[in-house]
User: Which sequence fits this backbone?
């Protein structure tokens, strides 16, 4: 049982942000039907690091669980009519095409509401439905550059740095899922069916809310990035990453004087909390010197004894053995259709202490085409005709 049991969602999504949003909702119990092209959605045919396990894309592992797959050709009139009949049974239609694509397919908002006035229509775009950038490609690293995220990442002494993952896609997914849940709640209270719109540009800005607000309101700064290894431009020293002889340690918020004894740097005792802002570079340079003299095994207990917030900087390889990650059950293990092990991240929210289960592993292309169309009211002969004409596909393949 899930919070969204009984809610049917049609997901016309591709790549990452849209499919990830749909998976959040599927994890919560919604019946999410992924409507894919005959050749399969992008995320099942392309993979980050070009990694496939038993022909299953790691991107499909990331965003495909707990969904059913319907594969059809939306340019085929009979297939499009079948989709219209399915829309009549749905609560939500969600898509992350470029603006205007759904209208070209004959499935714009007006048509959706003609078919089903209670439908909630959710669109995730790169830059919004209109405006001078509406038709530009909305890809995570481009939005990192445009939004200031890259310019504010890295060191002041170096250049801008792209984040080593795709945070904007994932944040846009969470915003989309939250917006849909809010719209469903409003519809149940008032009967009003909303259009939910999320764009990646504002998602990127929202990720940086604290620092952008400080910057726009005149906060003092030397530049957009932290100097001397500090983590950012706005936090007081020694907030940042410091090298020890055999690794790196992140030091969080503390007073400079807190590090005087553990790092054997008595000169740090003279720096005030205000100096943490005004003399950031001097303090960070001293801390660099003190940390460089230590090994990881020496530094961690010294910082712990001094009450300094800190943690080693670790790679993904350390995550499965992290005691808290293990306690939370943050990883889920399953098998591909070929029987090989695959690892997925668990749903990140608990409900009464329980994490929603993986009810279905990422499906094959069009695995559920026949059953979904039957639920939309199509007869066996109609479905057979669609399959025979190539307007619908049902396969056991993981990619097209």
Assistant:
């Amino acid at each position: 049982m899930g919070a969204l049991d009984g809610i049917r969602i049609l997901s016309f999504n591709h790549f990452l942000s849209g499919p990830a949003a749909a998976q959040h909702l599927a994890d919560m119990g919604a019946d999410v039907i992924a409507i894919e092209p005959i050749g399969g959605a992008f995320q099942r045919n392309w993979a980050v690091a070009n990694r496939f396990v038993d022909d299953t894309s790691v991107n499909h592992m990331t965003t495909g669980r707990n969904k059913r797959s319907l594969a059809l050709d939306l340019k085929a009139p009979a297939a499009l009519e079948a989709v219209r009949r399915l829309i009549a049974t749905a609560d939500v239609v969600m898509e992350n095409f470029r603006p205007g694509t759904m209208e070209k397919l004959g499935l714009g908002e007006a048509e959706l509401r003609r078919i089903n006035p209670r439908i909630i229509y959710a669109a995730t775009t790169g830059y919004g439905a209109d405006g001078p950038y509406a038709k530009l490609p909305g890809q995570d690293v481009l939005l990192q550059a445009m939004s200031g995220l890259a310019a504010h990442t890295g060191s002041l002494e170096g250049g801008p740095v792209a984040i080593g993952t795709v945070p904007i896609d994932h944040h846009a997914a969470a915003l989309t899922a939250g917006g849909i849940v809010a719209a469903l709640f409003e519809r149940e209270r008032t009967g009003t069916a909303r259009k939910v719109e999320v764009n990646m540009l504002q998602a990127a800005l929202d990720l940086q809310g604290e620092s952008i607000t400080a910057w726009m309101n005149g906060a003092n700064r030397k530049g957009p990035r932290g100097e001397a290894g500090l983590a950012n431009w706005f936090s007081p020293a020694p907030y940042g990453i410091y090298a020890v002889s055999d690794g790196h340690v992140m030091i969080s918020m503390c007073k400079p004087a807190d590090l005087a004894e553990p790092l054997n740097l008595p000169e740090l005792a003279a720096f005030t909390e205000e100096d943490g802002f005004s003399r950031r570079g001097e303090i960070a340079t001293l801390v660099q010197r003190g940390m460089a003299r230590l090994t990881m095994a020496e530094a961690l207990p010294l910082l712990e004894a001094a009450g300094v917030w800190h943690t080693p900087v670790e790679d993904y390889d350390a995550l499965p053995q992290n005691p808290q990650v293990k306690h939370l059950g943050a990883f889920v293990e399953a098998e591909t259709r070929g029987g090989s092990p695959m690892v997925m991240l668990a749903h990140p929210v608990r409900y009464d202490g329980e994490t929603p289960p993986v009810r279905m592993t990422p499906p094959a292309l069009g695995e559920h085409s026949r059953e979904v169309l039957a639920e939309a009211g199509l007869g066996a002969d109609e479905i057979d005709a669609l399959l025979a004409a190539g307007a619908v596909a049902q396969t056991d393949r993981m990619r097209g």
About this structure: The chain is about 35% helix and 15% strand. The radius of gyration is 25 Å. The chain has a mean pLDDT of 97. The first helix runs from residue 17 to 27.
